[in-house]
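Folding Problem: From Residues to Backbone Shape
Fields: amino acid sequence; protein backbone structure tokens
RECORD BEGINS BELOW THIS LINE
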Amino acid sequence: MIRLDATRLLGRAGALADLLSSTVHAGASVGFLAPLCRAEALAWWRERAPDVAAGRLAVWAVPDGDRVLGTVGLAFPGKPNSRHRAELVKLMVHPDARGRGLGHRLLATAEDAAAAAGITLLHLDTETGSPAERLYRSAGWTSAGVIPDYAARPDGALCPTTLYYKRLPPTAPTR
């Protein structure tokens, strides 16, 4: 697993776009509707590079040759009253690589990096009833509630979303 700086992100944008497209086409609700064309997925990843360069977003990837099998990100808010928290974003595992523990590894990597950066609170949202919920619950995340009809699945149907949070032990920030 590697942390992607802006240059590495741009260099792997094609593989990340393929991962995003595969994830959406497998039915995961990660913010996109199907069919997701490669050009749109590629543009989305390229648009993340300035945030990575500025330190507003941290991205990790699990490379496998020319492919990326999984990714996860941490979005850091810029407001002074929210510098203690971050949002876990776009945890994705390629459909062909599921069931190997990559989701747990990605989640642990993001949590460890957040703690090392002085983050004491993580939050995320995920489709209610999705396999991702099992991952977050097994890793000690707490449900904060459900919002009905929050997002559309890749097929366009509205679905509820569960908000989760996890407290991390305080450490000296390195970010």
Notes: The chain has a mean pLDDT of 96. The chain is about 35% helix and 35% strand.
